[in-house]
Design goal:
- There is one protein chain.
- The chain has 4 domains: about 20-220, Histidine kinase-like ATPase, C-terminal domain (Heat Shock Protein 90, 2-Layer Sandwich); about 240-310, Helicase, Ruva Protein, domain 3; about 325-460, 2-Layer Sandwich (Ribosomal Protein S5, domain 2); about 465-550, no CATH class.
- Strand 3 and strand 4 form a beta hairpin.
- The strands form 2 sheets. It has an 8-stranded mixed β-sheet.
- It has helices at about 1-15, 20-25, 35-60, 95-100, 120-130, 195-205, 245-255, 260-265, 275-280, 295-310, 325-335, 390-400, 445-495, 500-520, 530-550, and strands at about 65-75, 75-80, 135-140, 145-155, 160-170, 175-185, 210-215, 220, 340-345, 350, 355-365, 375-380, 380-385, 420-425.
- Helices cover about 40% and strands about 20% of the residues.
- It is of the alpha+beta class and about 550 residues long.
Length: about 550
């Protein structure tokens, strides 16, 4: 019996083998956003456009991106994305486009669209799996040098690029990168389409020009609204409050620092010599302890010492928010509305990671007044079109009392009205709920900041809606009075035996009295200190409610 069990164990052992990263994702492509044909098309374009925007901004170039989608029939599409960025050096092209988990941003503590080094290589792999055709890459780094051209496949078992063709070629552009892939997909318009993604991208990236040709051969141009490239985010070191036990052990083993005090000051942001000594004191550790010789128990004491020490929040020059003015410009450029407002909150922190929440509102115009509001979610300027119900942004909007701001709302639901709401999180590490980067995790600190930003927009909206309603009511009352002014003038003319010219003069005088007594329509509702004070009280009360919720 024992011999039989031993034989089976050996047989089972023979079946065990390593699983490659690319091989895993090729079988679980839904994790990366390729779970249906419609989403696959959008994800491919999203990843390529995001890479182009990141490259242009890092090089200080105003982005001009060309997106071309051709319907080849039988659910096959050819997607071409071309940019005017700095280009990619020859040796890096195969790795960037045909190797998963290869990139420059995973270990970098600064704001960027890409994080994991998966996106564009996953798109190449999906195209290869569904059509068998290679991705075609053209990149040029200098006006006086030829472009490098590659045709690539992903070796899914070994997770490395397979170069099918490599050559130099002439390209009219001074510099830039172009990728062309054929993939199995479907094109449908609507709120989760590539059209919507590009439109929303133009809102939160007002410095970009996008030239888009859709599968119907219709060209749509999204022009830039500003000539200024966003402020470059600077790389920072991790903050002690964002480091967990396992990572701390690894940092201690890998450091070149000779003492614990030196380790704390060189490996982390916001830790000076005095703060490092205080951490050691609170953790009952000697400042001259050698980091590499620290045991697990000593590391746990270090973590306790960090918790007991009051630390300054991490620096915020590692993030680059859009800004109120540019966010409002983006809304005005792409949404036809009557009223616009935008808010940028002060920087905050979750798990040691700095972040900024921005919110915007566009009200009225040709927007649907019967259905629920339009919600636009963004992370590091990238639109999030899927998994809306699972996102912290949606939860925050539903948890805000919009009735006080002039919109209809049922309990635990999105408000109803002719309104679009934008929420943007800018962070060095956005906490997505999955690898497909479609929804933001429900961190209490993030939800709190989103609600505060929404409430500020809501108060501005309430002021406008109130003024609008007051003007409408006043116009209705005036119309009644103005209807009878000619009759009053005619009656006075007859009673006082006046001339026809006097009748016109009386009507003019009555209109003047009306304006004097009731004021001009332009001034109605503009200045109302009592109402503004009420809104301020509402805002203060809302903030107190949020703070109480955080404590509980």
């Amino acid at each position: 019996m024992a011999k039989e069990d031993n034989t089976k164990a050996h047989e089972l052992a023979k079946k065990q083998r390593d699983i490659g990263v690319a091989e895993f994702f090729s079988r679980n492509r839904h994790l990366l956003g390729f779970d249906n044909k419609r989403k696959a098309l959008m994800t491919t374009i999203k990843e390529a456009v995001d890479n182009s925007l990141d490259a242009c901004e890092e090089a200080g170039i105003l982005p001009e991106i060309i997106v071309d989608v051709v319907d080849m029939g039988n659910d096959r599409f050819r997607v071409t994305i071309e940019d005017n960025g700095p280009g990619i050096v020859k040796a890096q092209i195969p790795k960037i486009f045909a190797k998963l988990l290869y990139g420059s941003k995973f270990h970098t503590m600064k704001q960027s669209r890409g994080q994991q080094g998966i996106g564009i290589s996953a798109s190449v792999m999906y195209a290869q799996l569904t059509t068998g055709r290679a991705a075609k890459i053209t990149s040029k780094i200098h006006p006086n040098k030829p472009a490098n051209y590659y045709e690539l496949h992903v070796n899914t078992q070994q997770n490395k690029p397979e170069i099918l063709k490599e050559e130099e070629k002439e390209w009219k552009k001074e510099r830039g990168t172009k990728i062309e892939v054929d993939l199995e997909a479907s094109y449908i318009g609507g709120s989760q389409s590539i059209d919507e993604y590009l439109k929303e991208t133009a809102i939160t990236n007002p410095h970009v020009t996008i030239i888009y040709t859709n599968p119907k051969a219709e060209q749509i141009i999204f022009p830039r609204a500003t000539e200024n490239v966003p402020k470059e985010a600077k790389e920072i070191k991790p903050h002690p409050h964002g480091v967990e036990m396992g990572m701390m052990i690894k940092l201690l083993k890998d450091t070149d620092s000779r003492t614990l005090q030196s380790f704390l000051t060189t490996e982390f942001s916001r830790v000076g010599g005095g703060t490092a000594k205080e951490i050691c004191k609170n953790g009952a550790l000697l400042p001259n302890t050698k980091p590499r010789e620290m045991s697990r128990d000593m590391t746990e004491k270090l973590m306790e010492g960090i918790k007991k020490t009051k630390l300054i929040n991490p620096p915020t020059d590692c993030i680059s928010p859009i800004g109120e003015e540019l966010l409002e410009k983006g809304l005005r450029k792409e949404i036809n509305a009557e009223f616009y407002a935008a808010v940028t909150r002060p920087p905050s922190v979750y798990r040691g990671n700095p972040f900024v929440i921005e919110a915007g509102v566009a009200y009225g115009g040709d927007q649907n007044s019967e259905g629920t509001i339009r919600v636009m979610r963004f992370a590091n300027r990238v639109p999030l079109l899927f998994q809306q119900g699972a996102c912290a942004t949606t939860k925050s909007i539903m948890g805000t009392g919009w009735r006080a701001y002039g919109l209809s709302q049922s309990q635990n639901s999105l408000p109803v009205g002719p309104c679009s709401i934008v929420v943007h999180i800018a962070s060095v590490w956005v906490p997505f709920t999955s690898e497909s980067k479609e929804a933001i995790a429900h961190y209490p600190e993030i939800i709190k900041e989103i609600k505060l930003a929404l409430q500020e927009c809501g108060r501005r909206l309430a002021s406008y809606v109130r003024k609008r309603r007051k003007i409408a009511d006043e116009s209705k009352k005036r119309s009644y009075i103005e209807t009878y002014i000619p009759y009053v003038g005619a009656a006075l003319k007859e009673l006082l035996s006046l001339k026809a010219a006097d009748e016109e003069k009386i009507s003019s005088m009555l209109n003047t009295i009306l304006e004097k007594q009731r004021g001009t329509l332009e001034k109605i509702g503009v200045d109302n200190p009592d109402y503004d004070e009420d809104l301020a009280k509402i805002g203060k009360k809302e903030e107190e409610v949020i703070e109480d919720g955080e404590e509980n």
